[in-house]
Amino acid sequence: MDTKKRGEMSIMKRKFYKLIPILVFVCSLFTLFSIVRISYAFPQECYNWSFETFYKITNLAISEDGEYIVVGDSSVGGINNGQIYLFKMYSAQLLGYAYITSGVNSLVMSNNGTYIVGGSNNGIVYLFSSYNFVYDASPLWTYNAGSNITALDISGNSNYIVAGSNNDKVYLFNIFISTPTWQYTTLGDINSVAISYNGLYLVAGSSDKSIYLFNRTSSTPIWVYGTGGSVWSVDISQDGKFIAVGSDDCKVYLFDRNSSTPLWTYSTGSPVVSIAISNDSQYIVAGTLNGNVFLFNRLSSTPLWFYTTGGRVDSVAISSDGQHIAAGSWDNSSYLFNRSSSTPLWSYNTSGYIRSVAISSNGQYLIIGGDSRKIYLFDFIDSDDDGLSNGYEVFQSDTKPNNPDTDGDGYSDGEEIAAGTDPLDRNSNPGPATTTYSTNNNIPGFGPLAILFGTVIALSLYKLLRKREFKMIK
Ligand SMILES: [Ca+2]
Ligand SMILES: [Ca+2]
Ligand SMILES: [Ca+2]
Ligand SMILES: [Ca+2]
């Protein structure tokens, strides 16, 4: 080898050595990113708890803080009977249930979980208090409307109830009085109703193709707007200022309460069967018969995104700030989205149509139910980043929600559940595996440590190489 070539080789070598610190640093960064990514991966079985009902689930609701959950079911066709079940979430406890003379067709709960209102297929409105909801609970009052109670809502301050029925009527109740304050007759079945937080404004959607807006002080509508088809779903913002509507004419409508002319409309290409507006009134989610979920910012009729499920999207829900969006589909799955992306954060498959989804105000808890006759509660906070939600650790695996490796055997709780080993037994673990913390996350501070370690190595190597270079030049 001649001197020139040897010189070239040593220059190449030096260049290579210089690359090493950079490579080490890049590897450290990659390790950190893999940790961050893992925190979104919830195994399918990670529901906090589930409960089997007698009949198919028709409706469910959750209190704002997620502490109370109410579920309604119905025998086939709703002709025989149904039940309303009340659960306390933190203790996974069934507080009681009430028999409903025919199936439950509509069901709501007050924001604070204090009151439950149910509507039956044979026309009865039931009001229950959560505080004395025991086995075979008795209602505070009932009202017989004589026809299927298809729609219900309760004001955020718990003072007013609005009901809609199949005999074309809208009813307003003061919560303490079992006879309606007033009623109004439209020209078709009432499909959906909603009432603002203070109960001052209420809206109803009818099969007569019209939307009706009321001030609660009068049974004469403030305005009526005709769409091109049955109005399937309505919602009103907490402050009563905005009204979102889904119609059989395939359109989503947004109204300012002060005008019967829509602020905007959007054609989805399929009947819009479910709709919800966030408490801060900034975001609107709509579900369609052909399986799409659309998210809108209130300020624009162009959807932020849409996602296609495999079946009718019968139920949608959105957290207070619009950050989290849930949808239940007749493809038997439920989906959770972040408002910034149409790719679901998560989905869960059951053995039947999803009829109802509800989300707690902060988006932490999601409850789903439908024809599988099972409710599932999910919790989306994973404090120790081990791949298992806090709720799953408390209710299912008995592991510690604030310790990623409860038994200290070097394998994370999530990793052990996935591998089928015991996360509470040091002697039970996935074995001398390829998947230890280095690939599967989970020691808090491990990422920063990896970076620190990488940086120290990188700096020492750099110094060493500088020294060598210096010597070589000498
Ligand atoms: Ca965890
Ligand atoms: Ca843990
Ligand atoms: Ca372990
Ligand atoms: Ca173990």
Give a verbal description of the structure:
- It is a single chain.
- The chain folds into two domains: 3-35 and 446-473; 49-379, YVTN repeat-like/Quinoprotein amine dehydrogenase (Methylamine Dehydrogenase, Chain H, 7 Propeller), CATH 2.130.10.10.
- It has four helices and 32 strands.
- The chain has helices at 3-38, 390-397, 413-419, 446-473; strands at 49-52, 56-62, 68-74, 82-88, 93-100, 104-109, 115-120, 124-129, 141-144, 149-154, 160-165, 169-174, 182-185, 190-195, 201-206, 210-215, 223-226, 231-236, 242-247, 251-256, 264-267, 272-277, 283-288, 292-297, 305-308, 313-318, 324-329, 333-338, 346-349, 354-359, 365-370, 374-379.
- Helix 1 (3-38) packs antiparallel against helix 4 (446-473).
- The protein is globular and about 90 Å long.
- Bound molecules: calcium ion (4 copies).
- One calcium ion (CA) binds at residues 405, 407, 409, 411, 416, 423.
Task: Summarize the structure in short.
This protein is α+β, with helices and mostly antiparallel strands and 474 residues long. It has helices at 3-38, 390-397, 413-419, 446-473, and strands at residues 49-52, 56-62, 68-74, 82-88, 93-100, 104-109, 115-120, 124-129, 141-144, 149-154, 160-165, 169-174, 182-185, 190-195, 201-206, 210-215, 223-226, 231-236, 242-247, 251-256, 264-267, 272-277, 283-288, 292-297, 305-308, 313-318, 324-329, 333-338, 346-349, 354-359, 365-370, 374-379.
